[in-house]
Each structure stands twice: as structure tokens, then as C-alpha cells.
Specification:
Length: 272
């Protein structure tokens, strides 16, 4: 009897942005990125995503600033927040990040009082991910206060080095960690070939990539903590997941969070 071919798990990542597809670098990933342009009608774009795209589960990464405001308004007016299991709002610090998180939450709650919201405190120097840690709560008191006041969940992701370098491998850090031995062996062979050919620049580049791969195991452990937190928020054994990642402010780690944390969550949970 022929062996049944195992279906490879995939996760859909949709970027609502008229200008860029930031996740285009995921060329060797099991995450499938695609761009959805908003244009002058955010309502038509989101309606197509929900009813016409054929995507059952997905991460929706909404472009910042005006795109976010227009899209959140359209989703609310068309009563479509009910199609999302969770809205994730990333912040990196107190001050303006929190002010804009408040604005984002207000835009959502204006239309839907029930959709689950989680604030993602990310790219911080502290290594703890314990939301009950007293030092963390003091350092980011405004963030914790907002979560309490808004009835939102809270997740924490420390700063990760070499995110950018790992993009050269076309996969998320979480995926690299899973295949690190195979990837490292391939990179080592490339380094040796480059050295034998006298190409020191290429050898140096791929040696640096080996360092990025070696650190991916620790990164995966941190990402898995976020995944476990998402399990508590969403519940386990979901057959379908739709998660929105949004902020009305740029520079809060939205795209990195969508790619490295939330899309890999779909990949890990729906791929089982």
C-alpha cells in the first residue's frame, strides 16, 4: 500500500496595506503572505477577506496610522469584529504607544464591546515574560493599567537580536529552530565552499547566518511562551483561527509580531 503523503501545514498572513508587503521575505516559510490593498474602500476589502477570499484561518496585519483607522471603522460598521477570535495591539513602551493603544481600543469598542483584545508588550530589554512580575509591572505600569482598565489580556515578548539577519533564510525564527541542524549543515558547507573559492565576503556572511541559526532555539522558547499564553486566551483545539494585529501608530513591532509570533501560532496549532 502506498504511503499517504503528509499534508504540510500552512498559515495565511494577510497584510492590509496599499504600499508594502512586509512579509514578502518569507520565501521558504510555511507561512503564506499576501497583500490586500485598501484603496478608497476599506469596507470592500475587509468584506472580500471575510466572505470572498476563501481563507478560513488567517492573521490580519493592518497597516498603521490612517489605514488602521479606516479599516477598524469599516469592520465595525459592517459588524465584522464577530468574525475575529482576537485583536492583538502591540506596544513597546509607555507614553505615546499607550496613548495610541487607547485610541485603537476606543475605535474597536465603539462598535463591538465583546471582541477579545490582547495587548502585546514586545521588544523590551527585560527577559521575563511573567505578567505577575513586580519589576515588570512597575517598569511598564501604564501598559498594565491600560490592560486592567480595558479588560484586555496581556502578553510579553522580550527583545530578540538578529531578527533581520534571519530574514535572509526566508523563515521565521520559530521555523528555523525546528530545522536548525539541517540549516546549519547547509550553511557550513556553503562557508567551506566560499573559503575554498577565496570568497571571504560570502564566507563571512554565511558564518553570521550560522550564529543567527544557533540562537533560534532560545528564541523559539520565548515564542512558545507567547503561544502558551494565546492558548489560555483562545482555548486549545481550535479548528479555525482569525487574529487581527493592529495599531494606529507605526513603530510598535506590529509586523514582526504578526510574522514571528501570531502567524507561527497558527502554524503550530492548526498544523497538528
Amino acid at each position: 500500500m502506498a504511503k499517504k503523503e503528509e499534508k504540510m501545514a500552512t498559515a495565511n498572513l494577510v497584510e492590509m496595506d496599499d504600499l508594502n508587503l512586509d512579509s514578502a521575505w518569507l520565501t521558504k516559510s510555511s507561512i503564506r503572505p499576501q497583500q490586500m490593498r485598501v484603496g478608497n474602500d476599506a469596507g470592500a476589502a475587509i468584506e472580500h477577506l471575510i466572505y470572498g477570499s476563501g481563507l478560513d484561518s488567517f492573521v490580519l496585519d493592518i497597516g498603521g496610522n490612517e489605514t488602521a483607522s479606516k479599516t477598524l471603522g469599516a469592520i465595525g460598521e459592517q459588524l465584522l469584529f464577530r468574525h475575529f477570535d482576537l485583536v492583538v495591539i502591540p506596544v513597546r513602551d509607555e507614553g505615546q504607544d499607550v496613548d495610541n493603544a487607547v485610541k485603537t481600543i476606543d475605535l474597536i469598542r465603539e462598535h463591538d464591546k465583546d471582541v477579545k483584545i490582547a495587548i502585546l508588550l514586545n521588544d523590551i530589554t527585560s527577559r521575563t515574560q511573567d505578567v505577575n512580575d513586580f519589576s515588570l509591572r512597575e517598569a511598564f505600569a501604564e501598559v498594565f493599567d491600560l490592560a486592567d482598565q480595558a479588560g484586555a489580556e496581556l502578553m510579553v515578548m522580550p527583545r530578540i537580536e538578529r531578527y533581520g539577519r534571519s530574514r535572509r533564510l526566508g523563515m521565521t525564527q520559530w521555523e528555523i529552530a525546528e530545522k536548525r541542524e539541517e540549516i546549519t549543515e547547509t550553511l557550513k558547507n556553503t562557508v567551506i565552499e566560499a573559503e575554498n573559492a577565496g570568497d571571504s565576503n560570502k564566507a563571512k556572511l554565511f558564518t553570521r547566518l550560522i550564529r543567527a541559526v544557533s540562537g533560534a532555539k532560545q528564541v523559539r522558547e520565548l515564542v512558545d511562551v507567547v503561544h502558551a499564553r494565546l492558548d489560555k486566551i483562545l482555548g486549545k483545539d481550535k479548528q479555525r483561527l482569525r487574529v487581527m494585529v493592529v495599531s494606529t501608530k507605526g513603530g510598535v513591532g506590529k509586523s514582526v509580531s504578526s510574522q514571528q509570533l501570531v502567524a507561527t501560532y497558527l502554524l503550530s496549532r492548526l498544523g497538528k
